[in-house]
Amino acid sequence: MGRHRKEGLSYFSFEVNLDYKWQAIEAVHGLEGFAVCVKIYQECYKTDSGELDISSILRRKILEKNLNCGEELLNRVLETALEVGMFDKNTYDDKKVLTSNGIKKRIDAVGRDRKSARIRSEKSSSANKNRSNAESVPKEKNRIVKNRKEKKTIKQFIPPEFEVFNSYCIENKFGHIAKRAFDGYAVNDWKDSNNKPITNWKQKLIQVWFNERNQLKGNQNGQNIGRGGEASQYDNISEVIQVN
What's the pTM value of the predicted model, to 2 decimals? Predict the structure, then answer.
């Protein structure tokens, strides 16, 4: 919801040294007439145009009520005010509208200032919005790229069949450790000695099992490396797993 546009003026200046117009009003009608003119000024400054329309009987009655004065007093004060030029007599005679050049100049000046301030505010708001959008685009793009990378990197591990596992061990001349290694990982739900899920069982075999120590032990036991079989020298599967 936009801000409510302000109409007219909230206040107007009043000279300390009054000109002859105000002196004439006070001299002829006293402080009561003086107050009536001040209130008429207030009503004029409440509008964007600086004009107070009292062309109809109803509007005139509303003005009398707002000024808290009777019809007779209002007519006498207006007669004097128009005579001394406090309000524009031609405009009043043509349209029954109370205004003056001074009132209009002040209203127009404030209107221009408000318009300039409104334009500056709209430009600033638009610039901030564009800056915010520009900053959010790379963030959103980075978030999408990150999510794509995460989706690519997250792969569901599927444990191999023993035949596949055993064949790979034989191909690498470590067939004698195939069954013990497979059973050890299977019992532990395919997690290593640190209880971390295995994501690449071939890599794990190369890092943990396919080493010189296991090869030497296989030879010492007289096993035919490369033909598979059980590595009897391992009494506890954790002995090998813990090297990871």
Answer: 0.46
Residue type, 77: V
> In this structure, what token pair is assigned to residue 18?
């009054």
Q: What is the CA radius of gyration of the chain?
A: 49
Determine the pLDDT at residue 163.
92
What is the C-alpha to C-alpha distance for residues 230 and 233, in angstroms, rounded to an integer?
Answer: 9
- Within a 13 Å sphere around the CA of 154, how many CA atoms are in the beta-carbon half? 6
- One domain for residues 196 and 123: no
Question: C-alpha angle 197/198/204, rounded to 5°?
Answer: 145
Instruction: Say how many domains are in the chain.
Output: 2
124 and 179 housed in the same domain: no
pLDDT digits (tens, 9 = 90+) for 25-80: 999 999 999 999 999 999 998 888 889 999 999 999 999 998 888 899 999 999 99
Whole-number Cα distances in Å, 236 to 25, 137, 231, 233: 117, 56, 11, 9
Q: Name every residue whose Cβ is closer than 8 Å to that of residue 184 and which is 6 or more positions away in sequence.
A: 237, 238, 240, 241
Cα separation of 63 and 70, whole Å?
10
Residue 29 to residue 212: CA distance in whole angstroms: 121
pLDDT at 236 over 90: no
| Domain-terminating residue out of 78, 108, 130 | 130
User: Mean pLDDT score of the chain, rounded to an integer?
Assistant: 80
What is the chain's length? 244
Domain of residue 230, residue span = 162-241
